Amino acid sequence: MRNASNVASIQGMGGRGPMRGRPVVKPKDLKGTLSRLWILTSGNRKGLGWILLLSACSSASAILSPLVIGDAVNAVDKRLPAVSLLLLLLSLYLCDWIVRFLQQFFMASIGQKMIHHIRVALFEAMKTLPLAFFDRKQHGELMSRLTNDVDNISNTISNSLTQLLTYGFTIIGIFIIMLFLSPLLTAVSLIGVGFIFLLTRIVTKHTRKLFTQQQKILGELDGQLEESISGLTVVKAFCQEEQMNRQFDQNNNDFQKVATRALIWSGYLMPLTNVINNLSYVAISVVSGILALNGLISIGMISSFLLYTRQFSRPFVDIANIYNNFQTAVAGAERIFEILDEQPEPKDKQDALPLESPKGDIEFRHVTFGYTPHSPILKDLSLRVPSGTKTAIVGPTGAGKTTIINLLTRFYDVDKGSILLDGHDLRDYHMQDLRRCFGVVLQDTALFVESVEDNIKYGRRDASRKEVEQAAQIAGADSFICRLPKGYQTVLAQGGAELSQGERQLLTIARAVLANAPILILDEATSSVDTVTEQKIRRAMLAITEGRTSFIIAHRLSTIRDSDLIVLIEDGKIAEQGTHEELMKLGGRYASMYLTQTDS
Amino acid sequence: MRLILHCIKQHISTFLAGLLFLSVEAMADLLQPTFMSYIVDEGVKNADVRTVLYYGAIMLGIAALGALGAVMRNMFASRTSQAIGKELRGEMYHKVQTLSLENIDRLKPASIITRITNDVTQIQDFINGCMRIMIKAPITCIGAIALIVIETPRQIPMMAAVLIISAVFIFANMKCGYPRFERLQKRLDQLNNVSREFLNSVRVVKAFHAEEKEKEKFRIASEGLADAGVSAMRVMAVFAPLINFTVNFGIVVMLWISQNDSSTEIGKLMAAVNYMTQILFAIGMVSNILNTAARAMASSRRVNEILQETPAQLPPKEPLFPSIQGGVSFENVSFAYAGAGRASLEGITICINPGETIGIIGPTGSGKTTLVNLVPRFYDATEGTVRVDGYDVTQIDEKTLRRAVAVVPQKALLFSGTILENLRWGKADATVEEVRRAAKIACADSFVQETEKGYETHLSQGGVNLSGGQKQRLALARALVGNPRILILDDCTSALDADTEATVLNGLRRLSGQMTILLISQRISTVMKTDRILCMENGRIQGIGTHSELMHSCPSYQAIYDSQIGGMQNA
After folding, report:
1. Could you tell me if A319 and A201 are in contact, meaning their C-beta atoms sit under 8 angstroms apart?
2. pLDDT score recorded for residue A321
3. How far is B528 from chain A (nearest CA, A)?
4. How far apart are the first and last CA of chain B?
5. What does each C-alpha distance from B542 to A437, B358, B537, B538 come to in angstroms?
6. pLDDT band of A320, cuts 50, 70, 90
7. Of the CATH numbers 3.40.50.720, 3.40.50.1580, 3.40.50.300, 3.10.450.350, which one belongs to the domain with range A362-598?
8. Number of Cβ pairs closer than 8 Å across A and B?
9. Are residues A228 and B415, on separate chains, in Cβ contact within 8 Å?
10. Interface test with B, best of A478, A531, A533 (most B CBs within 10 A)
11. In angstroms, rounded to a whole number, what is the distance separating the alpha carbons of residues B489 and B521?
């Protein structure tokens, strides 16, 4: 509904459409993203302390058991009793069991809590963003960030963090013990680890780019899905199913290509590290065999060492794997931070004025505004609306009528000039207070999946049932609400799609009536209501606009004849203004428009 | 599960090739400890360096073979799983395109979208996981067991016990996991619903400074999802360590048995311990993958729901392909939306001649839109018959019917793409001239021409960069491009100012005679000039006739007239 009919604004927005087929991957900042993720999850660190402790315990048993096994093998080899060693081993395993259980059990909730906070933080940021942001972005793509990207982070945190910690301890512990057992053999297994490191670096360099690209294309795919499935009626009406299928198939193909490449690259890590692993196993077998031949080490030590080699490099395999998941998560996190970094609606000034019961004196002073810099919709527009008067704004489509409303409610801010309320610039007030002053009925009749009563109470949660019914009566919505299966308690399961356009509009009017704001804005609010109902609304509006500053944008000039002031906007400027009688007498554009409409 | 098997069947050759290479890789892993035991038992015990090096070389060769297997199976696995994912997404999307609006109302768009994206990904990950690890785990497991059994037969009872207990735990894990993962997906749907609603209503949210309330809704949904996640993961937290412990316990028992046996060959014992750790690793993987399987099964059920969904409207068995002239008749038609308590239309009977222009007027919710929606078969009449040129609409080929009937809905929906692309929806091969002619009638040509790129201007996200009136005019032009026999205008000029509307209506009037026009409007001045006016209330026809006839015979019409024109004349 944003009234950006202006030529260049279409251009400007058009350029931001989905760039099918030529994804651009910016070089991203891994370290920066990580540290921000760390800050973002700061509220959940206490639990992490416990997890850290448990991880240390769990690693200890992993580190000690091969040593005990080695001794036991030696004992068996030398035909010595090994009962006490085996009991020791058993108790180590018991500890391991308990610790692992506790660790995973707690990590489940810590991880989920963390991700819940990220999600809410993201939503929090989104809700403060200016409308321009939402007008610009594909909704499906934004949703993809709220779910897919957050999900990726969630998987990484909950699955990988525990493992990562355990492995960290394990590696360090085993390294020390191996070094203690035999520096030579340790050196042999380190060579393998070195190769794994190298491999990981090469692979991740590719995968990170690919994963970012993959998420981006996924976003586009989601965008198209959202658009075509929500608009399926139109698709069907024009037999465009095949065209939509083709378009989807193309996006789907693009996605498959990138995703396959990303998967293949990331998939190389696991098996190749495994191979390197096997190679060092061979090396250890041979070297230790030779050492044993020369009597330098015992058979039991070979056994311990072989187990250690497996345990030592297995974490590396997994770490490589985890690091891989990590790439996806970081790519997702970067997309989340993109939203967190969007410029929110301008903050209130330090010395912002409170606004409790405004008189409703409004003045536009030389206001110039455009949705894109070089194409103003409103040009040097000045207008004074004394408090308590009813002003109608009329004019051809695209003249800038809705834009005036967008500026009044500060959905957008003026480029030049200023808008004053009770003598102060709108920007000097607290945003919350300011918006509370306006009761708005908009062109689009957005309702929520809630009961009818809650929908009407949207602007004033604390309203009583009686007030709700009164508001509905004033808006003329009472009669159809009573015909709904559960009356006011009927839940609009499809967000109002089960109601007719007119019924939806009546509900939004009731919503504005209940909000009881000092200034009313009706943006073509009665355009879809039948005229009998409209009559009722007009009468009701007359009652509630009494003593209130109100703005009405209407196409049906019959509805605004009794306004105190009628302003005809054309081409971003005021062409004519006055009362109905004055303008009719003037015999200009208004008069001719009026005559065309009532011509019968 | 059947769905997953079916998917795999489609790619059976690459799938099997992947498995083959996976087996090579697994075998290579498996043979290492056995050769190691030869190094110890034959090389070290006999103090023979050449034997040590000889077996070392064999091990090296096996490792190289394993590497080859690993690289190949990675390629096969990635390609297969991604191809399956793509096909499933495509299949679902194509299916959705064939569904009736009734199906869509019931399945809800948000849920359909999550199913196409998220659920398919789950299945894809599962298949990929299968080809990477899952099959490898059993191979490793079985191989390791076989080698332990052959080399050290005394360990058989211990092995059997370990395996049975592990299997029980894995099964229990599945059993508990499945319903929880299913709930997880449902909660994800709910979260999607909430965020979608917020995005669609952001203007209202801001106007009523209800950001906090929306955040609260989101927070609750997000918390629900987190809770479901915690409970699903806790199942794993219980079972995974238990399985781990079972196998570890097996190692202790194995050593215990060996120490009481004097014939133990030390190299074989070492190999056996090694195999036990490999089994442990493999079992860990199995239970991990089974958890993915639980999730994938829940997902595949949801995917299947869409694939199995039967369209509420079936295409006629022997479709008719009439060349439609534009006659429309309703014979005692009643209609109720699925799940709605009350009927939206009752006993509608009317006959409209080709080329006639019919105005439809009536209060909000009187069934005007529902009535016209039956003509292009968006919905089917619950009772009675809707006919076009005397043919029952349910018997006419869907495309033939919808090509002949063009609808301009109340809410002007446009799609991402250029203006020209959008307008060509009416007729795919329309020339620019034809498109412009339609746009001129709809008063859209002038503002389109003013843009820098004209008809090549890109509309982002259904034209958020256009005003309501501009969108309505483009939607009208889109309908006119196809030069339909029947044109349905559902109050589609509500956002136009009076001047533009008058011009549009005049343009349309010139078309009358060429096409049947059903014109829904709230304004009496709009319908007054039509051939006949249909006045509706509460899903019933109150009167049909010309303006002057209705002024005499129909009280509902008079009331509407008085509220608009009469009121004005009194002023």
Report:
1. no
2. 65
3. 8
4. 72
5. 43, 15, 6, 9
6. low
7. 3.40.50.300
8. 548
9. yes
10. A531
11. 8
* Strands ordered across the beta sheet of A362-369: A378-385, A362-369, A416-421, A424-425
Spell out the residues 6+ positions from residue B557 whose beta carbon is closer than 8 angstroms to its own: B361, B533, B535, B542, B543, B550, B551
> Is B426's CB within 8 Å of A532's CB?
no
DSSP characters for B348-375?
Answer: EEEEE-TT-EEEEE-STTSSHHHHHHTT
Q: Do B277 and A69 touch (CB under 8 A)?
A: no
Q: How confident is the model at residue A599 (pLDDT cuts 50, 70, 90)?
A: low
**Two tokens at B457?**
């201007």
Sheet holding B328-335, edge to edge: B345-352, B328-335, B383-388, B391-392
Nearest neighbour of B399 by CB, restricted to A83, A239, A396: A239
Rounded distance, CA A590 to CA A572, Å?
Answer: 16
Classify domain A31-340 by CATH number: 1.20.1560.10
B83: chain A residues, CB-CB within 8 Å:
256, 260
Which residue among B70, B116, B256 places its CB closest to the CB of A86? B256
Q: In terms of residues, how long is chain B? A: 571
Of B188, B223, B452, the CB nearest to A147: B188
**Residue written as token pair 């997902």:** B299
Cβ-nearest to B215 among A83, A123, A255: A123
* pLDDT per position as a tens digit, B196-252: 788 777 777 777 777 788 888 889 988 998 898 888 888 888 888 888 888 888 888
Q: Which residues of A touch B416 (CB under 8 A)?
A: 17-18, 138, 223-224, 227
Q: Which of A150-159, A501-510, B166-175 comes out lowest in average pLDDT?
A: A150-159
B413/A231 CB distance under 8 A: yes
Per-residue model confidence as pLDDT tens digits over A480-498: 888 888 888 888 876 676 7
Q: How do A438-441 and A519-523 pair as beta strands?
A: parallel
Interface list for B 312-341 with A (CB within 8 A): 337, 340-341
For residue B332, the model assigns a pLDDT of 93
B 342-361 residues inside an 8 A Cβ radius of A: 342, 361
Average pLDDT of the residues of chain A = 77
Q: Find the residue in B nearest to A407 (Cα).
A: B207
What is the per-residue pLDDT across B9-26, written as a single tens digit (0 to 9) for each? 888 888 888 888 888 888
- Which whole number is the average pLDDT over A284-312? 80
Q: What is the pLDDT of residue B532?
A: 92
pLDDT tens, position by position, B91-101: 888 888 888 87
Complete domains list, chain B, with CATH = 2-308 (1.20.1560.10), 328-570 (3.40.50.300)
Mean pLDDT within A310-336: 72
Per-residue pLDDT band for A443 (boundaries 50, 70, 90) equals low
In B74-133, the residues whose Cβ lies within 8 Å of chain A are 74-75, 77-79, 81-83, 85-86, 89-90, 93-94, 96-98, 101, 104-105, 108-109, 112-114, 116-118, 128, 132
What is the average per-residue pLDDT within A135-157? 73
Of A13, A116, A532, nearest to B460 by CB-CB distance is: A13
A498, B340 in Cβ contact below 8 A?
yes
Domain boundaries, chain A: 31-340, 362-598
Tens digit of each residue's pLDDT (9 = 90 or more) over A508-558: 888 888 888 888 888 765 555 666 766 766 666 676 677 788 888 876 677
CB contact under 8 A, B71 and A272: yes
